[in-house]
Amino acid sequence: MDNIRTNQITEQIVREKNMQRKYFQEQEAAGRIVPKPPTPTEPHKSLLETVGLPSHVQTIRQDPEQALSLSISKHMWTANPGYIVRDGPKTASVMKKDYVWDEEEIALMKEQGMLDKKFNRRRDEFVDYCEASARMSHLTKGPMASK
Asked: Which of 49, 105, 133, 143 is least crowded, fewest Cβ atoms below 10 Å from its Cβ?
């Protein structure tokens, strides 16, 4: 939808709400309906009041909220995605053997037909155009292009 149509719809909704509000005010003034009192809002509870203090948080000479925030910050570093959670707080491995394809996995993929040559993209005019365009953009952006 464009802005004009959106503004028209918004204006129509506002008009209808004003008409409805005016109608109910007239009905209340005539005594035909009793106005509904607003429902009292309950005071907002904190998370500590709602859930309670976990058992692993110690509150030795501390405010419970401070103890909870200290516990959260103490355990927060284990939530870092740079660590493998399954192995505990050890850094992720960067050894070459971790990035080598498993032969059984490749055999399974071949059986399922996932490595079939029909999925390879053939070189056509579009591929040639993309390569030539990239080559030209690299040549024109190089250090010798400004001379």
From this structure: 143
Sequence-ordered alpha helix ranges (H) in 1-147: 3-30, 47-51, 64-75, 103-112, 125-141
What's the rounded Cα separation, in Å, for the pair 99 and 46?
Answer: 47
Q: Is the pTM of this model over 0.70?
A: no
49 touches 42 (CB < 8 A): no
CA angle at residue 64 from 63 to 65, to 5 degrees?
A: 90
pLDDT tens, residue by residue, 72-108: 777 676 565 554 455 555 555 566 666 677 788 888 8
Burial class (CB in 10 A: 0-12, 13-18, 19+), 71: middle
Q: Which of 42, 39, 45, 93 is nearest to 65 (CA)?
A: 45
- Mean per-residue pLDDT for 118-142? 79
